[in-house]
Amino acid sequence: MYRAGDLPLNRLVAIKTLQASNRGNRRAAERFTAEAQVTAQLQHPSIPAVHELGTFPDGRPFLAMRLVKGRTLADLPKERPDPSHDRGRFLAMFEQVCHAVGYAHDHHVIHRDLKPANIMVGAHGEVQVMDWGLAKVLDQRAEETGT
């Protein structure tokens, strides 16, 4: 992940790229593109907005998305003096995660890699559920017919 400037809009964005080791791997590029498309469809305050999907001159795809400044939920408990410290704050974060995942489920998307390391928490308690690379979009027709 890289930090970059969106010059026309005068803002910072995060740039996620396909790893260089996957350059030329069509299947990996297709999965990367699918991640960008799934994430872009999930327009929720706790899911980072995708601004652009593009390709570098070397052929690797990239996506520009909202830059989330903060720490992961995996890091935050390490700063607590004891498990009961800031319990309300952590419950509020958990509630935001539940709302984001519930929204995704309402749109037939399952994250499949939900863990503290994939949850970013900003300085003001805003929560972002990150890394939708393993997400699965359920087939609505099969769900409706029970097959």
List keywords for this structure.
147 residues; alpha+beta; 4-stranded antiparallel beta sheet; 3-stranded antiparallel beta sheet; 9 strands
In words, what does this structure look like?
It is a single chain. With 147 residues, the chain is an alpha+beta fold. Helix content is 29%, strand content 26%. It is built from three helices and nine strands. Strands 1-2-4-3 form a four-stranded antiparallel sheet, covered by helices on one side. Strands 5-7-8 form a three-stranded antiparallel sheet.
Q: How many helical stretches?
A: 3
Order of helices and strands: EEHEEEHEEEEH
Instruction: Name the overall outline.
Output: globular
- Order the strands across the largest sheet as they lie in space: 1-2-4-3
Q: Low-confidence stretches at least 5 residues in length (pLDDT < 50)?
A: none
Structural class computed from helices and strand pairing: alpha+beta
Mean pLDDT: 92
Proportion of residues in β-strands: 25-35%
Task: Outline the fold blueprint.
Layout: E1 2-6, E2 11-17, H1 26-41, E3 50-55, E4 61-66, E5 70-72, H2 87-106, E6 109-110, E7 119-122, E8 127-129, E9 136-137, H3 140-145
Antiparallel strand pairs: 1-2, 2-4, 3-4, 5-7, 6-9, 7-8
